[in-house]
Write a structure and sequence with these properties.
By secondary structure, the chain is an alpha/beta fold. It has a 7-stranded mixed beta sheet with strand order 5-4-17-16-15-6-7. A 6-stranded mixed β-barrel has the order 22-26-23-25-24-27. The chain has a 4-stranded parallel beta sheet with strand order 11-10-9-13. A hairpin with a 2-residue loop joins strand 2 (28-34) and strand 3. Helix 6 crosses helix 15 and helix 19 crosses helix 21. It is globular. The chain binds ligand MGD (2 copies) and molybdenum atom.
Length: 753
């Protein structure tokens, strides 16, 4: 019957976020459903975020959702940890066990003994916050990331120096995008340690940069690798990994000494220019060239192009955070766009606030107090690990400090930790020094892991595993900058539940006085500032804040739209962008930017460099994988079946290594296997490899070959910056490379498909 067939088919309009593509993005999509099953997902051409485009991971979503290995029932461990022996249990049973065990921990050791660990910015963190606060623990964090070295150094540095977060303006604040009359095309974009061909990071769709370049924006690329975008750039600055701070100070030196800065903006809206001018004299181009290996002439040329282009912007990536003293490097880069007058102007660095101030989850101490203030008493909040050591953690952040959590698990200081909830974080793959995490987490009495597949972390550590849902199985909202979107549920996969349902159910059990009686009530409450409820938003799909709204661009500092007191200026103590940071001064830190060498380098540890002569940068993203995800999706894996090491032929020849040979890559911290891949676009003194490798095709009992392929074993932990933000040495360590006698047994063979 044609009608019946039609009734069983539908097209659901939603956006992507989290499991499936895995990413931070918010691409508009149509999900085609037949008989309750997803048939395909395609880009929505009207959605202003992606305008119809999708990445290979989004296009492979059907293989992900209906993967035969997907978890479809809660599991209780019955063997020893790591033995991979499980019993299927019902959701009610799982909730009861969790409630009982976590209540025991709370009574015996205090709620703070339980830590709540998320991975990167998926649609998980906010729900974890709800759960941890309802249970009574302030120890919510992104696990394994030494120095919180992703996004948060940039986020916190921007809040401290300029009072707000900024992003390159690529017309993303308007439905009409590039055609909007107020938008101005950037003349130049400095693409700093970001690879737009592979990654969309932090609520920003990287192809927007390419859109602008196609329309005439010139690019300056700061990258040790000759990437696709470097090949299209006006200038490519091939720096030594980890020397970003020196390069930023060198560029500032040229711009200031040649008088190329925006004098009017600097005079009116910045604080401490004279002190900055004095500081950058320590970084003349010839000295910066020695540090960074970038020719002096190129530094000068880039500084001139950036400063004389109006408007101009900076699209930066995670290597900046991961430099030694990452937060300080962030400050130096912020000063580049500040002194050239590019803040809050069309085509420059647009101030990005959550659309309508609707948070995906509260992202400041004030917002947390507003939403959860009556959930957790202040004396409990003060137990958050890190607040008494790092003023930036106390005043400008809301999570526990990751390195101190690791230490606490191992030493019991400042107090013992006894349990962990891990959601959306394959820690044994993604953490720095994972063997230490393995030892530390194994000491905990009770661990719940919420994930979609078995992986090294679930097998090695979980006592209870809960099967999570993909983006297609979830309803909710998303406002990571703009627009404000409704997410709609298209399908259900029996046995799986979304993080929000799991966390809400347990939050209710741990705190019967929770002010929201249902998830819908909570979402409607979060949506309040927009004047819409969920049903109304769903009807519209997405909405932009209107012109003149404090969360819409431009020139808000001049109009008094940024500060709570309504005065013109930026949301900082001086009301200006602080080139000389009054907060840093108050905390006893250097208020001006400076350069610090990587933890290990040919210059900071010359003795070590004799044995480990190569510089290793890890974790350049592949468009096919999201961190440790997607190695089990055949259509993606067959395009990149093996973990490779990008290495210059001049480096391999003396070592007797040929293209395609298996090699060991080793640092003082550990070693892993890689397949050598000749690459001429890299300095012969540098090698690079992807992180995130584990081998789903291998035995779970062997943790899926984890200790053979995980490059994070080479990376030291506790290299955090002085202020606690930045310094994870993922992008610049020392290593040596030598032939491996054997490859990896049982590794995926493209030919055997
Ligand atoms: N497909 C995909 N997308 C992702 C992710 C993923 O795993 N897969 N991960 C997401 C997450 S959490 C993040 S943080 C972002 C990260 O994405 P990005 O911020 O783009 O960071 P990376 O891909 O690590 O590195 C970007 C570029 O920096 C270069 N680089 C390496 N070392 C250095 C250095 O020391 N200095 C400089 N200036 N450049 C360097 C690399 O060669 C690379 O081309 O991507 C997000 N998006
Ligand atoms: N060597 C090296 N290591 C790095 C980096 C690097 O550049 N180099 N980058 C670091 C950075 S920037 C980051 S942000 C971290 C990221 O590290 P993580 O965020 O820990 O990333 P994954 O290791 O992929 O773990 C994600 C897990 O979450 C599950 N998952 C996905 N979506 C959902 C969901 O919606 N709900 C739940 N419950 N689970 C979900 C996936 O199946 C997967 O097992 O890695 C860091 N590690
Ligand atoms: Mo990240």
């Amino acid at each position: 019957m044609p009608n019946e067939a039609k009734d069983s088919e539908k097209i659901v309009k939603t956006i992507t976020w989290s499991a499936g593509p895995g990413c931070h993005g918010g691409c508009g999509v149509f999900i085609h459903v037949k008989d309750g099953k997803l048939q395909k997902m395609e880009g929505n051409p009207d959605h202003p975020y992606n305008n119809g485009r999708l990445c290979p991971r989004a296009l492979a979503i059907k293989d992900y959702i209906y993967h035969p290995d997907r978890l479809r029932s809660p599991l209780k461990r019955v063997g020893k940890r790591g033995e991979n022996k499980w019993e299927k249990i019902s959701w009610d049973e799982a909730y009861d066990i969790i409630e009982k065990r976590m209540n025991e921990l709370r009574e015996k050791y205090g709620a703070e003994s339980m830590i709540f660990i998320q991975g990167t910015g998926r649609n998980v963190g906010g729900w974890l916050l709800l759960l941890s606060y309802s249970y009574g623990s302030p120890n919510w964090l992104q696990g394994g990331l030494t120095g919180n070295s992703c996004f948060h150094p940039r986020l916190v540095s921007m809040r401290i120096t300029q009072g707000d977060y900024t992003v390159p303006d690529c017309s993303q604040f308007f439905q009409e995008r590039y055609d909007h009359p107020e938008f101005v095309l950037p003349q130049c974009t400095l693409i700093w340690g970001q690879n737009p061909a592979a990654t969309c990071n932090d609520g920003f769709m990287a192809p927007w940069i390419i859109d602008c370049m196609k329309r005439g924006t010139k690019a300056i690329v700061v990258d040790p690798i000759y990437t696709w975008v470097a090949s299209k750039a006006a200038i490519w600055l091939q720096l030594r990994p980890g020397t970003d701070g020196a390069l930023a100070l060198g560029l500032l030196n040229v711009i200031i000494n040649e008088g190329l800065y925006d004098k009017e903006f600097v005079n009116k809206w910045t604080h401490g220019f004279d002190q900055l001018k004095e500081r950058v004299q320590e970084y003349p181009p010839h000295k910066v060239s020695q540090i960074t290996w970038v020719p002096k002439e190129k530094i000068i040329e880039a500084a001139r192009l950036f400063a004389t282009s109006h408007p101009a912007s900076v699209q930066w990536g995670v290597p900046v955070d991961m430099a030694a003293e990452g937060a300080i490097v962030c400050n130096a880069v912020i000063h580049l766009w500040t002194i050239t007058g590019n803040i809050d102007v069309p085509g420059g660095m647009a101030i990005a606030r959550m659309a309508y101030d609707v948070p995906p989850y509260p992202m400041s101490q004030e917002a947390i107090a507003e939403y959860y203030g009556d959930v957790m008493p202040p004396e409990q909040m003060r137990k958050r690990i890190g607040v008494d050591v790092y003023p930036m953690v106390k005043e400008f952040h809301w999570r526990a400090q990751a390195d101190m959590i690791l230490k606490a698990m191992l030493t019991g200081e400042p107090y013992p930790l006894k349990g962990a909830w891990i959601a959306g974080n394959n820690m044994l793959v993604s953490a720095a020094n994972p063997r230490k995490y393995y030892e530390a987490l194994n000491r905990l009495e009770f661990i719940v892991v919420v994930d979609l597949f078995m992986n090294p972390t679930t097998v090695a550590l979980a006592d209870i595993v809960l099967p999570a849902a993909t983006m297609a199985e979830r309803a909710g909202i998303r406002a990571w900058w703009t627009p404000l979107n409704a997410m709609q549920k298209a399908i259900e996969v029996p046995g799986c539940k979304p993080d929000e349902e799991i966390c809400f159910e347990l939050a209710r059990r741990f705190n019967p006085n929770l002010k929201w009686k249902s998830l819908r009530q909570l979402i409607d409450d979060f949506l309040r500032p927009s004047g819409l409820n969920y049903d109304q938003l769903k009807e519209k799909g997405w909405v932009f804040p209107p012109k003149g709204h404090p969360t819409a661009p431009y020139h808000r500092h001049a109009k008094g739209l940024l500060r709570k007191d309504g005065k013109p200026g930026f949301n900082t103590p001086t009301g200006k962008v602080e080139l000389y940071s009054t907060h840093f001064e108050r905390w006893g830190y250097d208020p001006l930017p400076y350069y610090a060498e990587p933890h290990w380098s040919p210059y900071s540890t010359p003795e070590l460099a004799k044995e480990y002569p190569l510089i290793l940068s890890t974790g350049r993203r592949s468009v096919l994988f999201f961190h440790a995800e997607h190695r089990n999706i055949k259509s993606l894996r067959e395009l990149e079946p093996h973990p490779v090491l990008e290495i210059h032929p001049d480096t391999t020849h003396p070592l007797g290594i040929q293209d395609g040979d298996w090699v060991w890559v080793e640092s003082p911290n550990g070693r892993c296997k890689r397949k050598a891949k000749y690459f001429h676009g890299i300095d012969p003194r540098v090698v690079q490899t992807l992180h995130g490798w584990w081998l789903p095709e291998k035995r779970a009992e062997d943790l899926f070959g984890l200790w053979e392929v995980n490059v994070n074993q080479l990376i030291p932990d506790e290299t955090q910056a002085k202020c606690g933000f930045g310094g994870g040495q993922y992008k610049s360590i020392l290593c040596k490379v030598y032939r491996a006698e054997e490859g990896i047994e049982g590794i995926y063979q493209k030919e055997s498909l």
